[in-house]
Amino acid sequence: MKQEDIWNADAARRYDTPGTGMFAPEVLGPAVDRLAGLAGQGAALEFAVGTGRVAVPLAARGVPVTGIELSRPMVEQLRTKADESTIPVVIGDMTDTVVPGEFTLVYLVYNTISNLLTQAEQVECFRNAARHLRPGGRFVVELWVPELRKLPPGQTAMVWESGPGYIGLDTYDVLRQHVVSHHFRFDGSEQARLFRSPHRYIWPAELDLMARLAGFELESRHADWDGTEFTAESRSHVSVYRNPPSS
Ligand SMILES: C[S@@+](CC[C@H](N)C(=O)[O-])C[C@H]1O[C@@H](n2cnc3c(N)ncnc32)[C@H](O)[C@@H]1O
Questions:
Q1: Is the pTM above the cut of 0.70?
Q2: Residues 164-178: pLDDT tens digits?
Q3: Which of 71, 124, 199 to mutate to test the pocket of ligand 1 (most atoms within 8 A of CB)?
Q4: What is the count of structural domains for the chain?
């Protein structure tokens, strides 16, 4: 399963759900507020910008936003909402693609660092963020906390959501820290639609070590974009890493 095959034209067409899910104002609003505050008077770079779910409202707030994105179909979807002069995008891999400019903020949201399937690629992603930031600039990562406490010994699959017309199921390879999310959508017929995405899960402590390898320090970690305290029960986190200010 290659990322280019997963984020194809069909996935891109189905991605946007205006006003609901990840596009709901109560989900998106606090994220955009926080990112705008962190960008300050400077420019922002979104790794894996996708269809511009975050970039479009952030740019509308007056923050200059550039994107890096692997999938052309996702960018074509973004182009229905913002042109190249509003949100420039470079097609490429966020681990090594370099875009012109200097940024006060690089951000990588919605668990997307886990789309990189090796530790080495994830470390390179931090290094690439550092490469684009001015001294004192910040790299923000939004990521879920691995739910291994829910996985009984010997079991390799776990249903994490089950409701009318939808089942979400994860399969684990704990040796490689891999999890494949399976999203089954179905109606009364015998057919179901399946969307699968592979991830490499990362513990917060491992993420912090990757950041240190790239020269960052952890500035803050909260359970969400509103600044809720991060605890042992938190299911995800928003972590802000800072490049050292120049001396
Ligand atoms: C879950 S979507 C997130 C899109 C957007 N950031 C958002 O919050 O809605 C994941 C995106 O990551 C992109 N992606 C996956 N691996 C990538 C990589 N190595 N470099 C750049 N983009 C990548 C996919 O093509 C897809 O558009």
A1: yes
A2: 999 999 999 999 999
A3: 71
A4: 2
